[in-house]
Amino acid sequence: MLSLPWRTVALGLIVLQVWFCVQVECFPALFDRVTQLPGQPKVGFQQYSGYVTVDEKKQRALFYYFAEAEVDPASKPLVLWLNGGPGCSSLGVGAFSENGPFRPSGEVLVKNQYSWNREANILYLEAPIGVGFSYSTDVSSYEAVNDKITARDNLVFLQNWFLKFPQYRNRSLFISGESYAGHYIPQLAELMLQFNKKDKLFNLKGIALGNPVLEFATDFNSRAEFFWSHGLISDSTYKMFTISCNYSRYVSEYNRGTVSPICSRVMSQVSTETSRFVDKYDVTLDVCISSVLSQSKVLTPQQVGETIDVCVEDETVNYLNRQDVQKALHARLVGVHKWAVCSNVLDYEPLDLEIPTITIVGGLVKAGIPVMVYSGDQDSVIPLTGSRTLVNRLAKELGLKTTVPYRVWFGGQQVGGWTQVYGNILSFATIRGASHEAPFSQPERSLVLFKAFLEGRPLPEAF
Fold it and tell me: So which residues are the signal peptide here (predicted)?
C-alpha cells in the first residue's frame, strides 16, 4: 500500500524534471524570447533578443536581436547581419531601418513587407563591444579595438549563441552586411573556416557584401569619377581630385592628423561643389536621410568647421531609448546614458581601414564559399565602380571565367540592376536606385537579390 505514493512522487519528479528542461535547461533561449515589442503589430514568427557573453573575466557581452523566418523557420537558413561604421548598430540600422521585420513610426511599429525574414532566420548583432546595447564593465575594453579583436569576439559570440539555439547549429549559415562590414565579414568567415578544421561547427554557405570597403585605395578613389560622372564636380576639380590629392590620400592624412595644405584645399573645393545639401550616400535625394546612415561617417571625415546635418526626428533612436522597449528587448544601458546609432565610447583603430580584405575574399572563394558583392548605384561613398573593378580583378586573379555575362536583372516588372557572375561562385550586382544602405532605399529589389543569393541562383532575367 505504501508503494503507490512513492510511485506518484517519482512520477511527479520526472514530470517536474521534464518541465524544468523545457523551460530552462534544454532551451536556454526561452529567457531571451520577446513576447511582443511595444506598438508591434501581430505576427506569427518568434523573436528573441538579449546578451551573449564573450569574455567572463571583463564581463564583455554582445547584444543580439533574432527574428525567425515568417513561415517554416525550421526549413530556412540562418543569416547573420552586420552593419559597419566601424562602431554602428545592426539593431538600429539593419533591423529597424533596413531589412528587419518592423520599422518605427511614431509610437508604434509598422510591418516591413520586404523584411528579409520572409526568406531566412535573421540574426542581428551589435558589434564590437561598446556598440548599441553591447557592453563591458571594464571600460578599457573600448580602447584600441581593431579588426582582429572584432573578428575574434564575433566568432566567440556565434559559438556561444549556438549553445542557446542548438537547433541552428547545423543549419545552412550565411553572413551579410554592408559598408565597413566589408572588413568584419571576410575576417570572421576566415576564422570560421579555420575553426572548422578542428571542430565542424559552422555550416557556412556564402557571404554577401553591400557597398563594402574591400580595398582602401580602389574603393575611395572611385569617388572622384562618381562625382564627376554625376555632374557633382567640375572638370577642373575632378583633375585636382585625381592628381593633386585623391581621396585615399586625404583620408589617410586625416586619420593620422596630418592633413596637407593641398589636400585641405582640394577637399574644400570638392565639398563646395558637391554641396552639403546633397546626401553623399544617395546623390538623388533632395533632403537629409535619417541619422541611421551615420554608420558611414568614418568613411567621410569632416572638413574643419563643417557640421553633420542629420534629420532632427530619428524615430529609431527615439524608439530604442524608450524604457518599455528596452525592457521588452531584455536590453540595458551600461556605462552610457542613451542608446546611439553609432558608438560614442568605442575607440576603433582607424588605420585598419587601409588593410585590404579583398585578398581574404579571394581565399574564401578558393575554399568554395560563394561570395556576392552588391552596390546601391546611387552611393558616392563606396561607389559601384570601385567594387566592380575589385570583383573583376579578383576573378581574373583566381582564373574564374564569366558564367553569367553582364546583363540586367529584374525586380518586379522593372529593371532591378545589373549583374555579372564568375565561375558560379563569385558575383557582382548593382541595385538600381539604391543608396549606401540598399535595403533602406530599395527594399523590394534588395529582397529579390537576397532571395537569389540564398538559393544560389543568378538574379532573374525577366519579370
Answer: 1-26
The pTM (predicted TM-score) of the whole model is 0.90
390: Cα separation from own chain's centroid: 20
Alpha carbons 142 and 182: distance in angstroms, whole number: 21
pLDDT tens by residue, 365-385: 999 999 999 999 999 999 999
* 141 and 58 Cβ atoms separated by less than 8 Å: yes
Are 252 and 299 within 8 A, CB to CB?
A: no
Angle, nearest 10°, between helix axes 216-229 and 235-243? 170
Helical ranges in 256-349 per DSSP H: 261-274, 315-320, 323-328
Domains of the chain as residue ranges with CATH: 31-215+316-463 (3.40.50.1820), 216-315 (no CATH)
- Inter-residue contact 223 to 247 (CB < 8 Å): yes
Contact in structure between 29 and 47 (CB atoms under 8 Å): no
Q: Which residues contact 338 (CB under 8 A, 6 or more apart)?
A: 321
Catalytic center residues: 179, 379, 436
Rounded to whole angstroms, the Cα distance separating 442 from 450 reads: 12
* Residue partners of 369: CB distance under 8 A and separation at least 6: 189, 193, 204, 205, 206, 207, 425
As a whole number of angstroms, the distance between CA 418 and CA 393 comes to 18
Least confident of 1-15, 37-51, 153-167: 1-15
